[in-house]
Amino acid sequence: xxxxxxxxxxxxxxxxxxxxxxxxxxxxxxxxxxxxxxxxxxxxxxxxxxxxxxxxxxxxxxxxxxxxxxxxxxxxxxxxxxxxxxxxxxxxxxxxxxxxxxxxxxxxxxxxxxxxxxxxxxxxxxxxxxxxxxxxxxxxxxxxxxxxxxxxxxxxxxxxxxxxxxxxxxxxxxxxxxxxxxxxxxxxxxxxxxxxxxxxxxxxxxxxxxxxxxxxxxxxxxxxxxxxxxxxxxxxxxxxxxxxxxxxxxxxxxxxxxxxxxxxxxxxxxxxxxxxxxxxxxxxxxxxxxxxxxxxxxxxxxxxxxxxxxxxxxxxxxxxxxxxxxxxxxxxxxxxxxxxxxxxxxxxxxxxxxxxxxxxxxxxxxxxx
Length: 369
Ligand SMILES: [Zn+2]
What we know:
This protein folds into two domains: 3-174 and 281-368, Aminopeptidase (3-Layer(aba) Sandwich); 176-279, Alpha-Beta Plaits. It has helices at 3-18, 27-40, 102-120, 144-149, 200-214, 259-269, 288-301, 316-321, 345-364; strands at residues 47-53, 56-62, 71-76, 91-93, 96-98, 128-133, 157-160, 169-174, 176-185, 189-190, 226-234, 240-241, 244-253, 274-279, 282-283, 306-310, 326-328, 333-334, 342-344. The protein is elongated. The protein contains nine helices and 19 strands. It is of the alpha+beta class. It binds zinc ion (ZN). Zinc ion is lined by residues 76, 104-105, 136, 162.
């Protein structure tokens, strides 16, 4: 099939994927998209397995009947909520596809689906797999996390096109996270007689100020731990001393060695601080596979590829936990998690071509076996 025809197929598939409203609260749509993709592979001679953890479905595609393919492509089909319902109706304009989840990361999923179909025709078939999960935006524990931590999934290398800015960057570091809920209790009283009560909001603000001293404000361009006070709630009326308040904190760490010291300090300030979710940092060195990948894409794109780091987290951290290297990159896109999300169509084509070439190179040493 010509490059043009493939690209049209990928565009149409992306549009179909965007129409599924696969947000966190919509398990039915997540099931429907997994079935849709499974159906896409019908007749192509691959092995497609639906895996469910805590009702969240994922799809694992392999070309051979094997549990552990050597190389896996990894994508997620869930999205963050849309700004308006029309975001689920994709629009192609000016070499871009607009719509919720186009850049993060349904276009990349469509490319990888077509890459799998391409290699399904190969003889012999390579030991290649594709994981499509449906819970990355809410932590990934029942998708990629489940496969790596509970199902013993151990590929040699993963390709996770869910980090960085465009195909010119390959991410070597991603921050880890600690999401906390901190509560504060007081004693209610009339607002005119605050001395008779204990103000829970005051107490909470005091705790926050102390925690802020542990993790100072982050300036643009700094690669340091960060803290965001994402939500604060409490109180009922002006003239009442509040007896309860709570806050949600989003802490990002640049190295795992900070995790327990930070938590120890926070527990001294707020002993009952509750960890709502956490994720390990992703840190890896350049290795031969990543250099191969860089070379393939530099040659094809005719421009330099930089190794970068990314503040955001991705499912790649579950591979890092098991010391499995991952190639993290992204098809050029914009406004992800925001209004007017888009993905660049030419880079979708380049990603297809480059990924195919890289996979061929990955297995080229095997022929002698
Ligand atoms: Zn993503």
